[in-house]
Amino acid sequence: MRRNGTGSTAARQSAFALSIDDYLNGEPEIHCRIIDAAAQLFRRHGFSTVTMQDIGQAVGLSKAGLYHHCPSKDRLLANIVRLAGELLLRQLEAAKASADSPGQRVRRFVVTRMETIARYQDLFTVIWQERPFINRADFADIAKKAELYRIGVRLLIEDGIKDGEIRPDVDPHLLMLAIDGMTGWAYLWYRSKGAESPREIGEAFWTYLAHGILGGSSPEPTKQQSRSRAKTSRRSK
Question: Is residue 2 part of a domain?
Answer without folding.
Answer: no
